Amino acid sequence: MKTRFAAFAGTVRRLVGFFKCLTGHHAFEVTQALSPQSCRIACRRCNRVFAMNEDVRVVVPWDREFHRMYESHGVKIRYKDWEFRKPNASVSISGGEPGYAPREC
Ligand SMILES: [Zn+2]
To answer: How many domains would you assign to the chain?
Structure first.
């Protein structure tokens, strides 16, 4: 009985987390400082990645343009292995290994 309750509680927790992320209330973690004013942040629940700039107070989804721009300014972009990964995926679907760059669209 205890395990059924634990499974139910886990399902409810994941469902609540899903709706929090869906409404923009992500569980952010700084994954790399890029400059004194900007950093790359990612959500530990949904693994989505964003660029944040403190000067203009903006958070926007991270894409290949940010990757290219920062690398052209001499910043070595290092992704965590869980970034861009689907939350319940056992393997990365879009990379994540060191040196990985988001694919061209
Ligand atoms: Zn999220």
So the answer is: 1
Contact 81, 92 (CB under 8 A): yes
Answer yes or no: is 46 within a domain.
Answer: yes
| 13-53 pLDDT, tens digit each | 999 999 999 999 999 999 999 999 999 999 999 999 999 99
The pTM of this model reads 0.73
Q: Which helix (H) or strand (E) holds 70?
A: helix 64-72
Distance in Å, CA 46 to ligand 1 centroid = 4
Residue bearing tokens 């886990």: 10
Does any domain span residue 12? no
Count the Cβ atoms, other than its own, within 10 Å of residue 30: 10
- The rounded Å distance from CA 17 to ligand 1 centre is 8
